[in-house]
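Hi V.,

You were right to ask for the full record rather than a summary. Here it is.
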Amino acid sequence: MNEFVKNNIQYLKDQYYMNKAIQLAKKGMYTARPNPIVGCIITKKNRIVGTGWHQKSGEYHAEVYAINMAGLLSKNATAYISLEPCNHFGKTPPCCDLIISSGIKRVVVAILDPNPIMSGKSIEYLKSAGISVTIGIMSEEAKKINLGFFKRMTTGIPWIQLKMAISIDGKIAMESGESKWITGIHARKDTHQFRALSSAILSTSKTILNDNPTLTVRYCIEKFHQKKYVQPVRIIIDSKNQIQPKHKIIKDDTSEIWLIKLHQDQNIWPKHVKQIIISKYKKNINLKELFKLLGVYQINTVFVECGAHLFSSMIQLKLVDEIILYIAPKMLGNVAQPLYYELQKFTLDKVKKFIFTHIKKIGSDIRIILKPIF
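Predicted structure:
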C-alpha cells in the first residue's frame, strides 16, 4: 500500500471517530455551560474502548470519563477529542497529565482552545511527552457546537440570537399591543428549545409589563434529566425601574434574575434577583457595555425575546449574530405594530441585508434563521 492511500485511509478513520466524539459532546449542550461541550473517544486496534463527554461545569471533563472507561486499554491507544484538552488547574485537574500517565500514544484534536491564554499550549505539552498529535479533523463542525464559547473567548461578547414572531405582513402585534398568539403552539414549543440551549434569556421591562411571562424553559423540559438540567439566567433591561417584586417572573425562583438598571431601587428583592447597574447611552441602557459585562459573567449565548424597539436598536448597533423569525400565515394590517424601526432614510442599495441560513416549517408557521451582513 503506497503512502498516499495509507494516509487517506487514516484520514477517513480519523474523521469517523471524530464525528462520534462531536456527537457525544452534544449530550452536554444543555448542562455544561459556561464550559464548552466536549466529547472524547478512545480507540485501540480499530475498536472503541472508552467514551466520555463533559456533563457539567465542575465535574470531570470528557477525557477523564473516557480514560476511566478504557482503563488499561488506554496504553498505546488513540484519543479523539473535539476540543484541545486542558493543561491547567481549574475546578478539575489538567486533562493532559492524565492523558500522558494513561499511556495514550496518539491524540487527535478537532480544534484548538479559543482562549488566547491556553490555545496550543496543551498540544506542545503533549508533544513534549512523546505523544503524536493531529489537529484540525472536523474543526468547523467542532466549532459550530460551541459558537458561544468561541465568540466569548475571542471577543469577550456572547453569541447573540434575536427572536421574533411576526405575521406575513411583517407585524409583531395589533395596534393595541395584543400579540398572543401570532404563532401556533408548535412554534412556541420550538422557542423553548432555543431557550434551553442558551446561557441567558434577555428581555425588557416592557415585555414583562405587557405579557407578565416567567421566561423559563417548560415545553421541552421532559427531554432532560431533571437533576442535570440547567435553566438559563433571566436578564431584564429595566432602565426606568418598572419591574416590581409582584411580577410573576420575580416570584419564579427557577433560575437567577438579573435586573439591568441605570440606578438601584429600594425594593426588597428575593435572593435569586440581583440589580446590575449599567451606564447610560442616549437616555437608555448602554447595550454594548451590557453584552461586554455578560461576557465577563461567562455567559456564552444570549437568547433575546423583546419588542420592536430593542430589536431595531440591536440591529442598528450590529450586536446580533443570528435572527430567528417565526412567521405566521396571518395579516395584521397597516395599523399593526411593525417588526423594525429605522430612523434614517436609505436608498434600496443601503438597507440592512441578511443571509438565509435555515428555513423550516413548524406546525402551521415557518421558522427562518438569518445572519446579518454588517
